[in-house]
Amino acid sequence: MKFRGVVMASVGVCLAFAGPAGAEDAARKFAVEDGGRASCRAFLAARKDQASADYRQMIGFVEGYLTAANRYEKDTFDLSPWHSEAAFGLIFEKHCTAHPGDTLIGTLQKLTISFRPLRLAQYSRLVEVGSGKDKAIVYEMILKRAQGVLRTRGLYSGAQDGRYSSAMRDALVQFQKQQKLQPTGVPDAATLWTLLNP
Questions:
Q1: Distance CA 56, CA 49 (A)
Q2: Residue 1, SS3?
């Protein structure tokens, strides 16, 4: 799947350049709850059965940590504004395959730093776009960003207003075809990852 390849390549670069985060006491220790103490090896083993309690606990820890980061990271409304549970699973699979001795919490700290340039700094309204099985809920500000990038690529000439118009849908279909993604015209996680990641 194209999304998997794009996620794997992009995350490798992001995590490679992210330094350590500083959520610790003077002795560089801090409390880590259940799933966060798991090793990458344990994550990879649990990921083989994504319905397992172990995997659900670990991926829940990831989502909870990032939700807390939204509260405590400076100038942050949403640190991961288009990432989904599936994307997080792929991100950790890529990193953990290369670094099986790392912990979930260590990887999450690096991920938090790598997401900073992609974050939403302030509140943005959520809008539902598409219909039927092809729909997504997206921040209006992310739609504006997408419109800007699509315009730069010569695929969109409408207003950069965060609205999901027929012109926006058509531009997304063209982009998705170029990138060998499902041409739904919906700004799903795979499309936004491919379009908006640096």
A1: 10
A2: coil
Lookup: tokens for 147: 């419109």
* Phi, psi of 108, deg, nearest 5: -65, -40
195/198 Cα distance (integer angstroms):
8
Tell me the residue range of the domain where 191 lies.
126-196
Residues 35 and 102 in one domain: yes
Q: Are 149 and 49 in contact (CB under 8 A)?
A: no
Whether 17 and 93 share a structural domain: yes
What is the per-residue pLDDT across 13-71, written as a single tens digit (0 to 9) for each? 444 434 444 454 455 555 666 677 889 999 999 999 999 999 999 999 999 999 999 99
**SS3 for 57?**
helix
Q: For 67-106, write each residue's pLDDT tens digit.
A: 999 999 999 999 999 888 888 998 899 999 999 999 999 9
Amino acid at the residue 4:
R
Closest CA to 186 of 82, 96, 75, 105: 82
How many other β-carbons are positioned within 10 Å of the β-carbon of residue 71?
Answer: 9
Residue 148 is predicted with a pLDDT of 97
